[in-house]
Design goal:
Layout lengths: L1 H25 L18 E7 L10 E6 L7 E4 L5 E5 L9 E7 L2 E7 L2 H10 L1 E8 L6 H19 L4 H23 L8 H6 L3 H18 L3 H13 L3 H18 L2 H18 L5 H14 L8 H10 L3 H26 L1 H6 L6 H10 L5 H20 L7 H15 L4 H7 L2 H20 L1 H13 L3 H15 L5 H18 L3 H4 L1 H13 L8 H12 L6 H29 L3
Parallel strand pairs: 1-7
Antiparallel strand pairs: 1-4, 2-3, 2-5, 5-6
Helix pairs in contact: 1-16, 3-4, 3-18, 4-18, 6-11, 6-15, 6-16, 6-18, 7-8, 7-9, 7-14, 8-9, 8-10, 9-10, 9-24, 10-12, 11-21, 11-23, 12-25, 15-16, 18-21, 19-21, 20-21, 20-23, 20-25, 21-23, 23-25
Length: about 575
């Protein structure tokens, strides 16, 4: 009885947390109250905007106002996230000179004196807009520490010396140690950002979207649905190797479009190994196309890949936008991938045992039993409604994270399940990784590395949309060969934002964000270390006694990746330039 009560409290408690988080995300952001005039007398106010050299908004720039030859400011404020600022002044009586000072730890100090006419305008109108101030990066010690730390974390992730979450936590710990100890005791130039500023870089929409979908998917997993699908795939293919590979690719693609890739492959790998061994096929001939399909297939939806979740939340790209603008390109890329795989493994498929294996058929059929039909019916209903709400959420002003959290709440309250088991299936490590990663990317954005990279890429791309699409798609794609695509995509988002503002039409169509989506996901297929899905699949296969080597994977993956990156680039140009965005 006590255990049952504990389970009930835990289930409804977690449901309440999900519901409160959904309400918090759905509620509009309150507008700051405007200052009131004192005694009906207008308060002198100076407003303006501060940008970096690339024209991007600069937050937390300190603006100080001095009267005459005073050494102490009479008023001060900080710029907002959009770069705008306003500062209210005391009385201007007998004031002839007003000076503005702009101070930021990572940008050169700027100063501006108001002209006599501007002071008079301020005195008469009580408001003066001083326009845009451009801040120039000063590349202090903090810049180099943050940049080196970010590169170190990428190397640790790529070399698998540390788990992703551990590497990201180690990186942000270095940033905080340097800021709080080095910046205080050694040199102010070592200051990077404080903890409050670091938290502001965490995209909570992404965190709650991933958490909500993990809870939803964990319920569906427990019903045996995926084992049933594997049995059907084997039955439909009639044991024909090429047809089996195509059916498995289709199954993996559809699953990856609606679930995260790692979950999909965790479910597919054990089943695929059984089928491959029974047909006397090298497991790699089925596992490799499944890996490639999982990375490509997820591009078509907002929730299909972690990189799409990041891009969608940052650029306000909806579930429908991904579905409508990328699905056909993804389909063409999958066709190209399948044709190349058939050609590459033509001898292997030709020599394999053909036809249904009675022993394997019986084993798969036994494992294909739906263990909880009632739970399956309810969870599939909730999942279907969730996908539908994703599609119409934009018209309801509902961000995807709200939909996912509401779905998780319904799962926890309505669908009877073992809540403790469900909580164990939620990958909390991934959520921690995302939070640490957001802060780490925020550190290099804070010190100006992102804007510097954006400036160089902007010089190369100029206003050429075609060049921008190919550089983003292939550039990010090739980097994803050796750099995990999640941190790479996260760090490239501000760069793409800057390039989109410079290339005519790119901001409206968001084509460069779609290029980032294509490049990061397809590029993750390049090498075995290019994505979590690849590494996880190789690890499971190796533990089962069927190692998937780096070179064996690369012989198939590199040509496929280059071909699909080309297909993705051409499709985006056709979709937005020929068909119109």
């Amino acid at each position: 009885m006590r255990q049952k009560t504990r389970q009930t409290l835990l289930r409804y408690g977690l449901a309440a947390v999900c519901l409160l988080a959904a309400v918090w995300l759905w509620m509009p952001t309150p507008t700051p109250a405007q200052g009131q005039d004192e005694g009906n007398a207008p308060i002198p106010t100076i407003v303006g905007e501060v940008l970096n050299a690339q024209g991007q908004a600069l937050a937390d720039m300190e603006i100080e106002v001095y009267f005459g030859a005073d050494q102490e400011p009479v008023a001060s404020t900080s710029s907002y996230e959009d770069g705008f600022w306003e500062v209210r002044l005391p009385s201007l009586e007998d004031v002839q000179q007003v000076r503005l000072g702009f101070v930021h730890p990572h940008y050169k100090a700027e100063a501006r004196s108001l002209t006599a006419d501007e002071v008079q305008t301020l005195r008469e109108n009580a408001t003066l807009n001083v326009g845009t101030i451009e801040a120039r990066n000063r590349y202090a010690l903090g810049f180099w520490v943050a940049s080196a730390t970010f590169v170190l974390v990428l190397v640790l992730i790529a070399s698998e010396r540390l788990p992703n979450a551990t590497a990201a936590l180690a990186g942000i710990s270095i940033i905080f140690v340097v800021t709080f100890f080095g910046g205080h005791w050694l040199s102010k130039d070592l200051y990077i950002f404080n903890f409050e500023r670091a938290l502001s870089y965490i995209n909570w929409e992404v965190i709650f979207l991933v958490m909500g979908m993990m809870i939803v998917v964990s319920v569906i997993e427990s019903t045996g649905l995926f084992q049933w699908l594997a049995f059907q795939a084997y039955r439909w293919s009639r044991g024909q190797p090429i047809l089996l590979m195509i059916v498995l690719v289709i199954t993996t693609t559809l699953a990856s479009a609606l679930l995260d890739n790692v979950t999909t492959m965790l479910l597919m790998v054990p089943i695929t190994l059984e089928i491959a061994v029974a047909l006397n096929l090298p497991p790699s001939s089925l596992l490799i196309p499944e890996i490639l399909a999982s990375n490509i297939g997820g591009i078509s939806t907002l929730i299909g890949t972690p990189t799409n979740i990041l891009i969608g939340a940052y650029a306000k790209i909806s579930f429908n936008d991904f579905l409508l603008n990328q699905t056909l390109g993804v389909f063409i890329a999958l066709v190209v991938m399948v044709l190349y795989v058939i050609w590459h493994f033509r001898d292997v498929y030709g020599q394999a045992q053909k036809g249904i294996s009675p022993v394997l058929y019986a084993k798969l059929q036994e494992n294909a039993t739906i263990t909880q039909p009632g739970v399956l019916r309810k969870s599939l209903f909730v999942f279907t409604v969730t996908i539908g709400v994703f599609a119409i959420g934009e018209s309801l002003h509902m961000v995807p994270a709200v939909t996912a959290l509401l779905a998780a709440t319904v799962m926890l309250v309505w669908v009877e399940t073992d809540v403790q088991k469900m909580m164990n299936l939620v990958d909390w490590t991934t959520l921690v990784f995302f939070m640490a990663l957001f802060m780490l990317v925020g550190s290099i954005q804070e010190v100006g590395l992102i804007s510097t990279i954006a400036g160089y890429m902007g010089d190369v791309v100029g206003a050429n949309l075609y060049l921008g699409v190919f550089i983003i798609t292939f550039g990010v794609g090739m980097l994803s060969f050796i750099i995990a695509n999640i941190p790479l995509a996260a760090s490239m988002l501000p760069v793409v934002e800057y390039l989109s503002g410079n290339v005519p039409g790119a901001m409206q169509s968001k084509i460069l964000y779609y290029s980032l989506s294509m490049g990061s996901a397809m590029g993750g297929n390049g090498f075995l270390i290019g994505g979590e899905t690849n590494l996880m699949t190789a690890g499971v296969a190796e533990r089962a006694g069927y190692p998937l080597s780096f070179s064996k994977f690369a012989r198939v993956s590199v040509p496929v990746t280059l071909l699909t990156l080309l297909v993705g680039s051409l499709w985006l140009l056709f979709r937005f330039e020929v068909l119109g965005g």
